[in-house]
Amino acid sequence: MTTPTGMDTNTDTPAVNVSHLVKRYGDMVALDYFDLDVKAGEIFGLLGPNGSGKTTAINCILALLTYDSGTIRVFGEPITPGSYALKRRIGIVPQNVAVFNELTVIENIDYFCSLYVPRRAEREPLVEEAIDFVGLGEFRKYRPGKLSGGLLRRLNIACGIAHKPDLIFFDEPTVAVDPQSRNAILEGIQRLNRSGATVIYTSHYMEEVEQICDRILIMDHGRHLALGTAEELKGMIDTGERISVETLDLSDETLHRIQQLGFVIDAVYDGRELAVRCRHGDHNLVDLLGILRESGAGIGHLTSRPPTLNDVFLELTGTALRD
Fold first, then answer.
1. Which residues form the ABC transporter domain (predicted)?
2. What H or E segment, with its residue span, contains residue 107?
3. Which pairs from 83-90 meet CB under 8 Å and 24+ separation?
4. For residue 219, which of 52, 118, 153, 297 sits 20 to 30 Å off, Cα-Cα?
5. Which of 238, 102, 136 is closest to 111 using CA atoms?
6. Neighbours of 255 (CB within 10 A)
7. Is the same domain home to 115 and 139?
């Protein structure tokens, strides 16, 4: 894809700026003075458990919902339901596939592109480029019912990007697709970003977020909890590495000694494996192995892994990121 048209050349202007946004549904506060800044040209991850306010925030940014107070600016301009020129610069790839089963692949892409580009002569090359971009050339005359789940997701993406938006929202674009299609989708998103598009990405798959996102915001209960790169977020939590040791003869006394180590957050033994969650430290594994050797416990397979975004999410929100 070539560079999106209408791109703001001032990269200091945020692609999206949300300030002190409040949205209530009766007595329920869906967004509680929520803040968000997305830099032009980045892939920005927006994470939160179900009910955290992600969808409400996105719908407010798209001017699909009214809100009680706060401000929203897209590429430096306030966005309203009538901001048609601004909305022309936005693309949306929803979680639920939104295509017409009665239309073919090329007809679907042409229809959605026509919502932004009414002149057929201008639209035709854009539609062809979108088909090539998602690799659906040989399926152009297929109806959606004949496509696999992965190909259907690619069609969904093509419908959202054919008009070459400067800002693209991807909401769970890889749900229920095979690994090959997932990789193709993620690579496509990165290509769109390299061509100049700003991307806001939501997913329940933490490894995807870590793989493609420049910065990540974690929200819950309508509030901004933490923002940073994946590594910066991992540095914000108490959890460091997790160590697992296979052993069949760990005594209660040794387990207690391990639990008393200053760097140990918790240690659990199920009769076959010792699982230790540690704080950040340089000698955690060495100190743990020292106690195991002193006790005479037999040591089998051993693993040590650094904290993940799942650990960050669990510690900050108290819940795992779930579908």
1. 16-246
2. helix 105-114
3. 87/62, 87/63, 88/6, 88/116, 88/163, 88/165, 89/4, 89/6, 89/165, 89/166, 89/167, 90/62, 90/165, 90/166, 90/167, 90/168, 90/169
4. 153
5. 102
6. 17
7. yes
Q: What is the pLDDT of residues 83-117, one digit of tens each?
A: 999 999 999 999 889 999 999 999 999 999 999 99
State pLDDT tens for residues 274-296.
Answer: 999 999 988 999 999 999 999 99
User: At 252, which CATH number?
Assistant: 3.30.70.1340
pTM score of the predicted model = 0.85
pLDDT per position as a tens digit, 226-269:
999 999 999 998 889 999 999 999 999 999 999 999 999 999 99
Strand order in the sheet with 302-305: 264-269, 273-279, 239-246, 302-305
Higher pLDDT, 218 or 12: 218
Q: At residue 26, does pLDDT exceed 90?
A: yes
CA torsion sign for 92, 97, 101, 107 is positive
Cα–Cα distance measured from residue 128 to residue 244, given in angstroms and rounded to the nearest whole number? 52
Among candidate residues 186, 205, 234, the one where a domain is terminated: 234
Among 234, 264, 281, give the residue marking a domain's end.
234
The pLDDT of residue 50 is 83
Q: SS3 for 62?
A: coil
- Per-residue model confidence as pLDDT tens digits over 151-177: 999 999 999 999 999 999 999 898 888
Task: Count other C-beta atoms under 10 Å from residue 2's C-beta.
Answer: 8
Nearest one of 150, 57, 156 to 101, comparing CA atoms: 156
User: What are the residues whose beta carbons fall under 8 Å from the beta carbon of 260, sequence distance 6 or more?
Assistant: none
